[in-house]
Design a protein that fits this description.
The chain has 639 residues and is of the alpha+beta class. Among the domains are: 220 residues, Aminohydrolase, N-terminal nucleophile (Ntn) domain (Glutamine Phosphoribosylpyrophosphate, subunit 1, domain 1, 4-Layer Sandwich), CATH 3.60.20; 65 residues, no CATH class. 40% of the residues lie in helices and 14% in strands. It contains 27 helices and 17 strands. The protein has a 6-stranded antiparallel sheet with strand order 2-3-1-9-8-10, covered by helices on one side. Strands 4-5-6-7-11-12 form a 6-stranded antiparallel sheet. Helix 6 links the parallel strand 13 and strand 14. The two termini are 29 Å apart.
Amino acid sequence: MCGISGIINIKNNKIPSLQKNLEVMNKLLAHRGPDEESIWLHVKQHCGFAHRRLSIIDLSLGKQPMTDENGNWIVLNGEIYNYIELKRELSNYYQFNTNSDTEVVMAAYLKWGENCLEKLRGMFSFAIWEEKNHSFFAARDRFGIKPFYYTVIKDTFIFASEIKAILPFINKIETDLDGLKDYFVFQFTLAEKTLFKGIKQLLPAHYIKIQKNNLIVNKYWEVNYNIDFEHTRLYFENKLKAILDESVDFHLRSDVEIGSYLSGGIDSSLIASKARKFLKNQSAFKTFNGKFSLSSHYDESEYAEEVARNIKSELFQIDIQPSDFIENIRKVIYHLDYPVAGPGSFPQFMVSKLAAKHLKVVLGGQGGDEIFGGYVRYLLAYFEQCIKGAIEGTLNSGNYIVTYESIIPNLSSLRNYIPLMREFWASGLFEDRDKRYFKLVNRANTLNNEINWEIFEPYSAFESFKSIFWQNNVQKESYFDSMTHFDFKTLLPALLQVEDRMSMAHGLESRVPFLDHQLVEFVATIPSNIKFENGNLKHLLKTTFKDVLPDNILNRKDKMGFPVPLSEWMNGALFDFVNDIFNSQIAKNRIYLNPVFDIKSLISDEGKFSRKLWGLLSLEFWQQEFQDKEYYYKSLIKQ
């Protein structure tokens, strides 16, 4: 796990101040790699790489940027978990000098070119300079676990693990209005957009190639929902057990100690339990939990404590207070680069800070909700479709049957979502499935007079949503697969941005075993009526691993993700803090806010799990941290 950056002139012209510029980029990424830093410049100074290292594998010889005897260079961020097997496969082709996964990626690319990406099993973003062909190649892992941002300025390609390392070089730090509209609607941006005008993200499962003055971006992988109706539930359960075991085993490869997050939910509890099984001879296994002791509605630590006792792990906990929010929220937004994916980033920052005091690598359960169907809105949307099918007489058509009779016993999961249900059904019933799901994920519904929507015309977030929701790799008949696929393509990368940035803020590597491409490809073939039987969220995961986790973990109806008591805090201990932020003159003049914006009314009306105030507050901190500090970022390359 590291921070990578680089500058390449597309026309092979010498880049002025290349050494200085790369030093600046390394400085801005220092938190990602506290163990080591280094820079490589091509002899012609038309390209160069910078690297900050967090040492995890081959602690003594894994220094980057890494080269070979032919003048090829690589920088890698992430881990290739099957590097041992690949090294064995490549041993007759390449003379290895280290035990690092970085050198394996270099050898794989030199032998197989872009097809090497099909071989890699892990989380990664990397860049390679190939001297023979005078070409540049960069790629990002299939799910977007590791970040890669870039811009092109006057024939110069600039990339980095975080946007802040690119900001000193762009002409002006401006907000991308299409990206901002996406943010208001979804709390993340769609496609290549970021909130910074002119800066793109390389999408998951994509690569970039620069050769002969051309820049090419291509997709190299897709998950296809080619449903397997031939096999039984038992077959799917047995194969799922085998693949997850293998993935967890691979994710434990390290030359340093590994622990695990433990929230008390199914996903993190399962990963921690599996990891402990493989590390049964290790004297201690550390797990980490964050809680809000304000009330039982925000404190799920009892479940984490039960799992920790069951697996005999040493549990470290942090009780998060309003003072922690005041002290750290600006740091959270700074490390995120731009606000995304809800208030869970704040407690994630705090728990990662705790974990980093004890070790360098943790496992997490990210991806389980998107792969296996863990969000309550799936149940709400499906319930409406069941009613519609029963009325129209189409309920029993096709292979994707979840009946309204069978779904009723699981509706108690909706108890905490009554406000969402009121809002969802207030605007009508039985529209097209894309419109109905859009209404469930659209967070702009509650933003009315606060936002000046005219500045965002004519961009349509709904049209962008549809282009993802109805992609050809998903069978049109399966509403469940369409919903989970949209979240897999959009929400998951946003959550992974949080996962990466909040851990790397403290020099901590976070690994996510659910996001193994062989596991994801397999689960995509399972019929939705098995994954989502009777409307039971994560049904297949629960039945498959019922012997691993306690019953009260498996059958919880009250899991809320990582709830944050923002409403209570902002009506209490944080009121003056938030009120002062929005009443500053600079905040009142943001172009996206209406003059009628009233922060006191907004605070008093904030619902228990509403994200409206969080969205506006984090956006204001982002503006202050980046747009308002343009002079600082520009000054870094002038010093």
